[in-house]
Specification:
Layout (H helix, E strand, L loop, with lengths): L2 H14 L1 H37 L5 E9 L7 E3 L5 H10 L4 E13 L1 E3 L2 E2 L4 E6 L3 H4 L4 E4 L4 H6 L3 E4 L1 H8 L3 H4 L3 E4 L2 E9 L13 E5 H8 L6 E7 L5 H15 L10 E5 H44 L1 H9 L4 H31 L1 H5 L8 H27 L3 H6 L2
Parallel strand pairs: 6-11, 8-10
Antiparallel strand pairs: 1-2, 1-12, 1-13, 3-6, 3-12, 4-5, 4-9, 7-10, 8-11, 9-10
């Protein structure tokens, strides 16, 4: 028997037990869907977050409060938060060939209101200076950014994200521009609308309201500080010198003595991306391990189904042998049945896994991701499951005595 005949017979046998086949396919599909789905989601999330970091550019770095490893999800904080005085003093005194941006996260629980429409209390309000958009790689899609006069005088103007426009203005950008919205009981005139960025870091990348830093400090200012300092140089080759200058100056700003350790950190954008990829690699290993355990269960289920099929078709096997079928032919037919079921389960699982895995990255503003590497892994695993699950039942069927098989009832 040639391969085409064997495949036809195997496919016919698979179809003859449709319900059993569908149940077995479902078991394999669930395992592959979990594996491919989670791995796709991890890749998509990593890509979306990397885009958020890479907006800073390879020639940018951030000065933050020092955090050491310790108990809790965020570690143990060392040193005081960056105060307004320290942030502004650093900005004025930093003379390197770079631009410094200051900002503060005012609140993550504000509500935005326009006429009779109000958003959920999950709007992020950020106070920014005149360099914020350039340094952080952000841009305004409609309208304009704050003028130097508005920054200095603390005008109640706002630049809002796409989610705010969608919630309050039914997605109509031109209606939003020039309108007055209320945020935390204060009115702001909308002068700009940000390009859609997705969730990114910190959640709700499009549920954001930018206000002048002076307004944020006045309305939401925290005496303990908590300002962000980001520096963007003009040349990547000057980064090491820029960081060294920034470190020395910030020690002076923080009034640290020579023997004192730094109580702040300087983080480069590429270092943050590398750390992110390091963390997700551990998650990938855990996901593959869990997926393999799930597929092991599916393989055991498929082998059990194939053994039952051998028992039910004992007389059929005897007839085929009596008509001239060789041991190798019988073995190939049953092995092909296991491979067909495994590949069908894998195909269904891969399609569902890609669709499910792209849900989270899409919510974070990422693009649809086709994980060819994980698709190949899914196909190979299904092939392995089919061979391992089908070999023993196929061998058992091939070794049946034709006379005893014909007598079987």
């Amino acid at each position: 028997m040639n391969l085409i005949d064997i495949t036809k017979m195997a496919y016919a046998n698979v179809r003859s037990n449709l319900l059993r086949t569908l149940l077995t396919i479902s078991i394999i599909a669930i395992g592959i869907m979990a594996l491919v789905g989670i791995l796709t989601a991890l890749d998509g999330i990593t890509y979306a977050l990397s885009n958020s970091f890479s907006g800073l550019g390879a020639n940018s770095f951030e000065i933050t409060q020092k955090v050491e490893k310790g108990n809790g999800p965020h570690g143990r904080r060392v040193g005081d938060p960056i105060s307004y005085r320290q942030a502004t003093s650093f900005k004025k005194r930093y003379t390197a060939n770079a631009r410094v941006a200051l900002s503060m996260n005012c609140t993550f629980r504000a509500s935005a209101k326009y006429k009779n429409k109000i958003s959920n209390p999950n709007v992020r309000v950020v106070g920014i200076d005149e360099n914020y958009f350039y340094v952080n790689g952000k841009s305004v899609e409609h309208g304009r950014i704050f003028s130097s006069t508005e920054m200095k005088n603390g005008s109640h103007k706002a630049i809002i994200g796409k989610d705010i426009v969608k919630t309050l203005f039914n997605g109509k950008d031109q209606v939003a521009l020039g309108s007055f919205i209320t945020v935390s009981d204060l009115k702001y005139k909308v002068i700009g609308i940000m390009e859609s960025k997705g969730a990114g870091m910190g959640g709700g990348g499009d549920r954001v309201v930018f206000v002048p830093l002076s307004v944020g400090k006045m309305v939401y200012g925290d005496p303990r500080g908590g300002y962000q300092v980001v520096v963007r140089g003009k040349e990547v080759t000057e980064m090491n010198q820029s960081i060294a200058d920034a470190q020395g100056l910030f020690r002076k700003v923080r009034r640290l003595r020579i023997m004192d350790d730094d109580d702040f950190e300087i983080r480069k954008a590429d270092a943050m991306i590398a750390k992110l990829e390091e963390n997700t690699s551990t998650l990938r290993i855990a996901t593959v391990s869990i997926g393999l355990i799930t597929l092991l269960g599916a393989a055991i289920g498929l082998m059990n189904i194939m053994l039952v099929s051998v028992t039910e078709r004992t007389k059929e096997i005897g007839i085929n042998k009596a008509l001239g079928a060789r041991k190798a032919d019988i073995r190939k037919i049953f092995l092909m049945e296991a491979l067909i079921i495994g590949q069908l389960g894998g195909l269904v699982g891969i399609i569902l896994g890609v669709l499910v895995g792209n849900i989270v990255p899409q919510k974070m503003g990422g693009t649809f991701l086709m994980p060819w590497g994980w698709l190949s892994l899914g196909i190979v695993l299904c092939l392995v499951v089919g061979v391992l699950s089908g070999y023993y039942p196929a061998k058992k069927a091939a070794n049946l005595d034709p006379i005893e098989a014909l007598r079987y009832e």
